User: Which sequence fits this backbone?
């Protein structure tokens, strides 16, 4: 494993970064679970809905990439709330072929360092309760679980 170098993502990289995020979330996304129970929503399957979500994320959030050599192997997105000095990590994804090498932990630390540089004093994130890998990472990185929630859905 090499140490990642961090920088802001470039617009021309966004399509590949979106693909990396979707691929890394496929095993755990509730969007896919929703499709299994209710089918596509208004004709849009879980990948379509992720792409729509990511269009909004990439237009409004910090996009930080982690590079190993010349290859981008990880990405994190988030926002910084200057009023509370709290950074919010929305998404953290690692290239499927690069998972298990510690890049997720490094990307997490890279985003926290980025928030510190912006004057943030706290950070928060959300993780599905059944995302065992994610929860194990955050627990081992010293995060405190302060609440959990259930996601409910109803077809009208």
Assistant:
């Amino acid at each position: 494993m090499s140490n990642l170098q961090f920088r802001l993502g470039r617009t021309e990289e966004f399509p590949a970064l979106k693909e990396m995020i979707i691929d890394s979330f496929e095993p755990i996304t509730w969007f896919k679970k929703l499709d299994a129970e209710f089918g596509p929503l208004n004709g849009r399957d879980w990948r379509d809905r992720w792409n729509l979500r990511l269009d909004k994320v990439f237009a409004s959030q910090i996009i930080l990439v982690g590079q190993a050599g010349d290859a981008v192997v990880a990405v994190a997105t988030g926002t910084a709330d200057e009023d509370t000095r709290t950074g919010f990590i929305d998404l953290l994804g690692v290239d499927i072929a690069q998972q298990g090498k510690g890049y997720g932990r490094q990307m997490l630390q890279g985003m926290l360092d980025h928030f510190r540089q912006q004057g943030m004093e706290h950070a928060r994130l959300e993780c599905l309760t059944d995302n065992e890998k994610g929860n194990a990472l955050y627990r081992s990185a010293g995060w405190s679980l302060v609440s959990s929630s259930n996601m409910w859905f109803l077809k009208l």
